[in-house]
Write a structure and sequence with these properties.
Length: 254
């Protein structure tokens, strides 16, 4: 098993990619701390991991809240005694809102969940990992973090921030035995669009963002992203650090 007895924290574990990562990591022997803002879905995923013979505890945590992030990481150490893998996966969309329409409220919410949350979790996790002399961080970025208009202004900026953070942490702490990488998924069939709420189909933001959608060979399944996360979380990727793996069926290769 690729993660035998590794202690892994996964945010946004109640749905989509985070859920599939939890199930896969659980099957691979990890001891899991699963975090989400939704207690109901979290409980279901924890139960499913345990039904499969895995080990998991759920923590209700809003990654935009410093005290929740602290508690989430403390739970890993207090429950299992260490922290080997941190997956910053929780994220929200911005309804493809272009900058002329973005409110401060939307901008701050998206940045705080998608970018500040991962920074705080990494800030809290690193001293533990440095002390151990090893640790792995996996961030779920997006092709929106590599290109200019796959989403709205706030989402695009937040995911570019995640890519920059990934590279910075990867290089800065490489000599401490830490690896930090990101995944840039293309379109993946999850609940993220539904959770973002109704969109104005005629809006500039949506029309412009969708103008390249025809080049997308296909959407992916969350389980296909979970397999990339497993690669990055495990020793299989021991020489991979400070970089981004795109998983998009070739959408951005055009
Ligand atoms: N689905 C896609 O097409 C796609 C593409 C590229 C990147 N991503 C990224 O993948 C990641 C996972 O998204 P998904 O598509 O699986 O979506 P999803 O909506 O199915 O799952 C996201 C989970 O995160 C949780 N969450 C939301 N806000 C949170 C917060 N503040 N604190 C803790 N948990 C929170 C939600 O409750 C949900 O369970 C996100 O970072 C997203 O930006 C998604």
């Amino acid at each position: 098993m690729k993660l035998q007895d590794k202690v892994a924290v996964i945010t946004g574990a109640g749905s989509g990619m985070g859920k599939e990562m939890a199930l896969l990591f659980g099957r691979e022997g990890a001891k899991l701390v699963l975090a989400d803002i939704s207690q109901a879905t979290l409980d279901q995923v924890v139960a499913e991991v345990k039904d499969n013979g895995g080990s998991a505890v759920g923590v209700l945590a809003n990654v935009a809240k410093e005290e929740d992030v602290q508690n989430m990481i403390d739970t890993a150490v207090n429950t299992y005694g260490s922290l080997d893998v941190l997956v910053n996966n929780a994220g929200i969309m911005d309804k493809m809102t272009p900058v002329t329409d973005v409110t401060d409220e939307l901008w701050e919410r998206v940045i705080s969940i998608n970018a500040t949350g991962p920074m705080r979790a990494i800030r809290k996790a690193l001293p533990i990992m440095i002390k151990q002399g090893k640790g792995v961080i996996v961030n779920t970025a997006s092709v929106g973090g590599l290109y200019g208009s796959r989403a709205g202004a706030a989402y695009t900026a937040s995911k570019h921030a995640v890519v920059g953070l990934t590279k910075n942490v990867g290089f800065q702490y490489a000599d401490a035995g830490i690896r930090c990488n990101a995944i840039a998924p293309g379109g993946v069939e999850t609940n993220i669009m539904a959770d973002a709420g109704d969109m104005n189909m005629e809006s500039r933001g949506l029309k412009k963002a969708m103008s390249g959608a025809g080049f997308n060979p296909r959407n992916g399944q969350p389980s296909e992203i979970a397999k990339v996360a497993l690669f990055l979380a495990s020793d299989d990727s021991s020489f991979v650090n400070g970089t981004v793996i795109t998983a998009d069926a070739g959408w951005t290769a055009y």
